[in-house]
């Protein structure tokens, strides 16, 4: 898999200073943990999962989740389990017959309900389970060790290389009086299985539901105070450099126009001022984004990044390109990161940036530079004068 592999060679050269690098489930955890991008959830009951992946229906799809939890009814679980097994077998068959190339095979995860369900699914999938990257653990708590035990056991038996992705969304975490102890307990547990944990995910929808809250399309999750405070503590515990965990941003729920109360959150000027070889009407793209309510998503992804989170759960294909375009490293920040790493020999502590608009301090910015270069491996680096708007052309199917 390689991000933006749907672009023509000409457009790719015009857009990228450094091209995204290829990755797959065998890529090192340090790099792969940054590579999930916009992770599309699909209900486990959907009968076209394999067909959609094999036909590359969703342009740019790099990671996906087949969901057996909240996206299906309790009575549908047996049907969904059987369907997921069938779909995975079909994808594996097509992959083995070269009907789909490795470059087009997204990272595949399954969100399960119980640890025992993992064993049941792996047994049903047989050798086809080799295409699964990992399993997502809902409502993960400090007592959820069985999930990780099962993953470790399967890996030890060489059944496959599977990762675990816990979702932090339990009442014990959102409730202030128990939050700190519970987060520390979760961290102690996953630290024991550190190399098996690919990503920490945040279940903001479940958190909101515990308070009867549903955020509107005019606001981001960071405007909901009780959720914002909880996310802050999750980042505080799991986002420390020494922890080496990548935290993913919460889901954005909206994908079609609804009644708007507040002003749109995308300024006109970046679209009006942007010019490239394609000659497409950028103001029309802006209008299209507003009609799809993607402007709120864009703002939330920017806030995710500013708070140290990379990766976003999505529920609609129209979110894939905007989210992933925002993860591409800008030319300026890439040169800053390279300069900081290059000059980390202790001979100086601060220097003027390449763009001469800021000071780069070696020690406090060093870890940021490392993370930026990891992101550049997966998502690439824009050419000078290019930004995420470059990728929002009509052929991206926004």
Helix and strand run: HEHEHEHEHEHEHHEHHEHHHEHHEEHE
Shape: globular
Distance between the termini: 20 Å
Question: Sheet bearing the most strands, described?
Answer: 8 strands, parallel, barrel
Q: Which class do the helix and strand fractions yield? A: alpha/beta
Q: What number of structural domains do the residues give?
A: 2
Under CATH, the homologous superfamily of the largest domain reads: Phosphoenolpyruvate-binding domains
Helix-residue proportion? 40-55%
Q: What would you note in describing this structure?
A:
With 398 residues, the chain is an alpha/beta fold. The chain folds into two domains: 9-328, Phosphoenolpyruvate-binding domains (TIM Barrel, Alpha-Beta Barrel), CATH 3.20.20.60; 332-379, no CATH class. It is 42% helix and 13% strand. The protein is built from 16 helices and twelve strands. It has helices at 9-15, 29-32, 49-54, 77-96, 115-125, 145-156, 171-174, 176-191, 204-209, 225-238, 269-273, 282-291, 294-306, 320-327, 331-342, 362-379; strands spanning 16-18, 38-43, 63-67, 107-111, 132-137, 163-168, 200-202, 247-252, 312-314, 350-352, 359-361, 381-382. An eight-stranded parallel beta barrel has the order 2-3-4-5-6-7-8-9, surrounded by five helices. It has a two-stranded antiparallel ribbon with strand order 1-12. The protein has a two-stranded antiparallel ribbon with strand order 10-11. Helix 13 (294-306) runs parallel beside helix 14 (320-327). Mean pLDDT is 90; it is low at 394-398.
């Amino acid at each position: 898999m390689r991000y933006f592999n749907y672009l023509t060679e000409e457009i790719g050269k015009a857009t990228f200073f450094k091209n995204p690098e290829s990755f797959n489930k065998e890529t090192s955890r340090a790099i792969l943990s940054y590579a999930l991008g916009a992770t599309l959830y699909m209900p486990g009951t959907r009968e076209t999962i394999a067909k959609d992946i094999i036909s590359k229906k969703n342009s740019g799809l790099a990671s996906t989740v087949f969901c057996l939890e909240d996206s299906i009814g309790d009575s549908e679980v047996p049907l969904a389990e059987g369907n997921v097994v069938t779909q995975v077998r079909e994808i594996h068959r097509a992959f083995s017959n070269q009907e789909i190339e490795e470059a087009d095979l997204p990272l595949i995860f399954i969100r399960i309900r119980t640890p025992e369900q993992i064993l049941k699914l792996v047994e049903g999938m047989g050798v086809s389970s080799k295409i699964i990257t990992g399993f997502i653990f809902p409502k993960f708590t400090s007592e959820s060790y069985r999930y990780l035990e099962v993953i470790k056991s399967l890996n030890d038996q060489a059944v496959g290389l599977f990762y675990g992705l816990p979702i932090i969304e339990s009442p014990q975490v959102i409730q202030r009086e128990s939050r700190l102890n519970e987060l520390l307990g979760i961290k102690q547990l996953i630290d024991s299985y550190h190399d098996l944990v690919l990503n920490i995910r945040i279940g903001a929808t479940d958190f909101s539901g515990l308070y009867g809250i549903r955020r509107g399309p005019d606001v981001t999750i960071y405007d909901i105070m009780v959720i914002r405070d909880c996310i802050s503590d999750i980042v505080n515990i799991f986002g420390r450099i020494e922890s080496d965990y990548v935290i993913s941003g919460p889901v954005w729920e909206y994908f079609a126009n609804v009644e708007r109360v507040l002003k749109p959150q995308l300024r006109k000027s970046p679209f009006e001022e942007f010019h490239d070889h394609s000659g497409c009407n950028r103001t029309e793209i802006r209008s299209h984004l507003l009609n799809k309510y993607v402007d709120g998503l864009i703002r939330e992804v920017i806030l995710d990044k500013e708070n140290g989170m990379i990766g976003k759960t999505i529920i609609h294909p129209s979110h894939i390109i905007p989210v992933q375009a925002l993860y591409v490293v800008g030319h300026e920040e890439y040169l800053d990161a390279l300069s900081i790493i290059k000059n980390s020999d202790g001979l100086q502590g601060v220097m003027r940036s390449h763009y001469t608009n800021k000071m780069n301090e070696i020690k406090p910015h060093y870890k940021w530079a490392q993370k930026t270069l990891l992101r550049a491996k997966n998502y690439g680096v824009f050419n000078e004068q290019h930004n995420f708007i470059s990728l929002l052309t009509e052929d991206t199917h926004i």
